[in-house]
UniProtKB/TrEMBL annotation:
Its main location: other. The gene is PECAM1. Residues 663-693 are annotated as: Disordered. This is Platelet endothelial cell adhesion molecule. Residues 1-17 form the signal peptide. It comes from the Eukaryota. The keyword Heme does not apply.
Amino acid sequence: MYLALLVIFLQFSELYTQDKVFTFNTVEIKVEPSVKVRNGAPMSIICHADISKSADFQLKYNFTIFKDHKLVFMTVSDTGDAQYEVPVAKSSDTGDYQCTVKADKKTRSSDPVHVWVTGMTKPTLTADKRDVLEGEVVKLRCELPEEDPPLQFCFRKIKTNSTPRETCVPESYTNFSVLEVSVEEGDNILQFDCFGRRNVKLEWEDSAHSNKTLVTVREPFIKPTLTTVPSSNNVTEGDQIQFECSTVVVEMRDIEIILQKNKSILNSVQDKKLLRYSTVATLEDSGEYLCKVEQGGASKTTKLNVVVSELFPKPTLVASMTKLDKNKELILNCSINGFQTANFSIIRKNANGDIPLKNSQTLKMRVNVNDTGSYTCKAEVKGIVKESKPVRINVYAPVSKPTLSVAGGLPEVVLGKPLQLICHSVMGTPPKTFRFYKGDDVEKIVINDTYATFLDENIRLNDQRGYRCDARNNHSSGVKTSDILNVTVIVPVRDASLGSVPYGEVEDGSEIAFLCSVKEGSLPILFRFFKKTDNEVLLFEKIEHRDRAMWHKETMKRQDTGTYYCVASNRANVDVRSQPITISVILAAWKKGVVAALVLITIAGAGALALWWFLRKKKKAKGPSMEMSGSALAANLTSEKLARQPNDGDYYSGPDLESAEVEYTEVEVSTLDPHRDSMENRHSRISGHPDAT
């Protein structure tokens, strides 16, 4: 019975559970009165969940509202709606709002909605001082207590009848900013205000301007007064001029007066109200003067323009000649246009200091080369000294006879290569003008101090023109000419060839002659003979004053077989190599005869053995003893024949058997004469050589 009741309860529970089915259709968020709210107005963020149910049953809804992904509101409700109230909207409430609803085990979120609270609260501005001196600093503080960073604060400095000066300061972490403002000269009555600024969706939004703060400025000292005695427009060279700069100070503490001209400080005093400066006036003293008074951060200036009249013009130095020969007389005269009374001196300029020559208006001197340089004169009137423009004097020594040489040393050049010549003149005052001649033609003109170079790239074989050069400077002696230089043209060696007598083959023990020749090339020529091996062995070398060289090798051996070539060169330093020739060393004629005789004897021995074998076959009827004796005899004779050597053509034909019918053949072998054979080869032509006879 209990079991049946349990089954019925479970079935009813399952049916009840199946009836509690729901799903989220949508979750929405809306803003009232709108997504754009005025700063200070109330604002409501409403979250609504639209749900479908399988039956009418109760659900608990957990609402969570986020602003810019940060939690701002949570609530639990029996309905599908929740409301987040903001009584006073501020600019910090601007952002993206999103709602998340959780019911049972299901969660759904709305799309984000951007809310913009327009307008910012009015900032407040305070100043640490209301009464300041020029040069002091005022500290300003601008604050937006109801706004959240990041913010930007803009401070404005307002002067009467001028455009406000604005300075903006960004603040990433605070809702206030502090700025120090220096009070400058002329800042009498100042007003300051500020406003805030923030960036919303890439747009700047400004707050209203703060309250205005008034700051009164007092002068720590008055603007200085600058005067001169005599007056600034009545000063002449030589006058004693005195400058005075003064001011009135509220407090004599850390005050400084400075006198300047063209940014150069002439004089200065500290903790005094008056500055004096005196000097003898010159033309260079004309210009603008500046008197500056400084105390702390305050600074005031006064300018005065001074004009100094000329007492006398600069002197003029005149030379009798500016370019003259060594040992000539030079006259220098110094004068002032329209002014006669002055103290004159003539000076030579030097890098280490001026050299006074004479305290006079005129100087006469006989010059040397060392007197070349710049000269000036000075004139003094009433303590004012003026200097003339420099005059350049050049004293010339004559050039020496130039020498012309080849840069390489020897007076020769390889055909096809450029020729570099050097013209050198040891003596004479630079600059010097050098001219190069080829024959009578001027090839190049060079201006230099001691030497000049010329490159002739047009070298021809049969050009007989000599080279010369001349040199001159500004000395009156004129041109000096070098001796004529004749240059030898070296023709490089061309087309080397190698031949031999005999050619190709030579007998062992005999001699051979090699001939190496060239088609052209300047003499002398170095000929070198080589045998081609792994190490390129030099066999013979010789210097000849002709276009060929011969090398005799008296005895050739079998190991001399190989490939030969020659190399020719001259002073052009170009090695020309011939085509190789191959020489084979063969047996001498008499050695060939000996070999032939040995061959014939061997053949004859073989014939005799064959004859013996034939006769033995015919005498088979005889007894065994006869065969044995015959065999022994044949063996002995054969051994004797093999051991015997041919002698002067004698030919051994075989054994002498009386009982046998033997046919004899007499062979005569003549011995070859090696000397006669080599002489015949020697008188043959030198094969393989174009100049062979």
